[in-house]
Each structure stands twice: as C-alpha cells, then as structure tokens.
C-alpha cells in the first residue's frame, strides 16, 4: 500500500485585481505518495505553477488545506513553513536560479549551510551529489562557465542536498534543448528511484510526462487523470 506524503484538499485560489476576480484553482484535491513520480501537464495559464507554489508553501490558497506528513502547512508559523521548505522540500525551476558569483559546489552546499550543517560536511555532501549528476569536473566553475544542461543538473543537486521527501519541479527542461532536456529527465528518474524521493513535475512535454509513474492533466483550474495512450501517441 502506498504511503501518503502530501495531500491537497479542497484548494481554491483566487486573485483580485481591482473589480476583477480571477479563479485559478477550483476546489482541487490531490494526493502525492512517497517515492512516486507524478507529472502534471497543461497549457500555459492553466494553474499548474500556482498549484506547485501552494504545495511548496510559496503561495497561500484562498481556501482549502495542504497537509504534509500530518501537518497542515498553512496552519503553521512562517518559521515552521520555512523549516519545511529547507528540510523536506526541494525546488527545481525552468531557470536554474543559481547564484552567479558562487561555484557549483558553493551553490549546491548553500541550503545545507542554511540548515546548520558544518561547512566541511556540507561541501562533502555537495561534492558527492555533483559527482552523482555527472559534474565532478565542474565543482569550481561558476554558472556562467557551464552549459544550460550543466546548470540545470547543478540545480537538481542543490534541490537534493538536504535529502528532501518531495521535490517540486516547474518546467525543469523547458529552457533546454532536446538532448539536454532528455538527460535532465533521465537524471530525475534515476535519482527518484535510487533515493526514494517523490517528484512532482509540472511540464508541457508529453514525452517526458508519459514516462512518469502517474500523469494528471490540468485545465481551467481542475485536475483529471490523463489518458496515457493519448499521451504516448502525442509523445511519439
């Protein structure tokens, strides 16, 4: 039996601009299980990124709840939410968001240092992760000295440094060429399997989504199960 990791229950999100009220998420329910790879696909503006931000405590729902391992995330203090983001969640974005003045090793180690890990151990763990993602030769290189694919692999290593239970990835291959995107996706699958980390990946790439454990489609703020046969035909 799969063990529940995170649950979104009855989540609605509205944005108010003047007299205009826009509903982005509509009474949404979602369960994420430990170690699974879940793809959420949909067109731009369908609410995918908003859902990911709410799951990661980066944006508050208008109503509903998000529970992770028994804790109602939006009933917690800002400090406790920050601890969960640092310890239990990892984030990967379409753009790597690496700090340009720091090396790959320093960028990956930074979340561990913030978590209170001693510098020597943080750098040791960062080095091991960079070697795991095929960047052992790039430890002392800054982002400007790396290719797009290398920067994104560095961002994946950074997301995993504190051994999170769940990684939230927003279009992680969207800014890469086909070959680099394929390499990044294979890396995500490999690490998810080896480390037992759950991944929720928001993507418009049908080919990548079709190879994950589960696929959901978002349209007009609602989620539905995606027809895997249809998705596979789109990907071919």
TrEMBL record:
<keyword id="KW-1003">Cell membrane</keyword>
<comment type="function">
    <text>Part of the ABC transporter complex LolCDE involved in the translocation of mature outer membrane-directed lipoproteins, from the inner membrane to the periplasmic chaperone, LolA. Responsible for the formation of the LolA-lipoprotein complex in an ATP-dependent manner.</text>
</comment>
<feature type="domain" description="ABC transporter">
    <location>
        <begin position="6"/>
        <end position="235"/>
    </location>
</feature>
<dbReference type="InterPro" id="IPR015854">
    <property type="entry name" value="ABC_transpr_LolD-like"/>
</dbReference>
<keyword id="KW-0067">ATP-binding</keyword>
<dbReference type="InterPro" id="IPR027417">
    <property type="entry name" value="P-loop_NTPase"/>
</dbReference>
<keyword id="KW-0547">Nucleotide-binding</keyword>
<keyword id="KW-0449">Lipoprotein</keyword>
<comment type="similarity">
    <text>Belongs to the ABC transporter superfamily. Lipoprotein translocase (TC 3.A.1.125) family.</text>
</comment>
<dbReference type="InterPro" id="IPR017911">
    <property type="entry name" value="MacB-like_ATP-bd"/>
</dbReference>
<comment type="subunit">
    <text>The complex is composed of two ATP-binding proteins (LolD) and two transmembrane proteins (LolC and LolE).</text>
</comment>
<dbReference type="Pfam" id="PF00005">
    <property type="entry name" value="ABC_tran"/>
</dbReference>
<keyword id="KW-0813">Transport</keyword>
<keyword id="KW-1278">Translocase</keyword>
<keyword id="KW-0997">Cell inner membrane</keyword>
<dbReference type="GO" id="GO:0005524">
    <property type="term" value="F:ATP binding"/>
</dbReference>
<dbReference type="InterPro" id="IPR011924">
    <property type="entry name" value="LolD_lipo_ATP-bd"/>
</dbReference>
<dbReference type="InterPro" id="IPR003439">
    <property type="entry name" value="ABC_transporter-like_ATP-bd"/>
</dbReference>
<keyword id="KW-0472">Membrane</keyword>
<protein>
    <recommendedName>
        <fullName>Lipoprotein-releasing system ATP-binding protein LolD</fullName>
        <ecNumber>7.6.2.-</ecNumber>
    </recommendedName>
</protein>
<dbReference type="InterPro" id="IPR003593">
    <property type="entry name" value="AAA+_ATPase"/>
</dbReference>
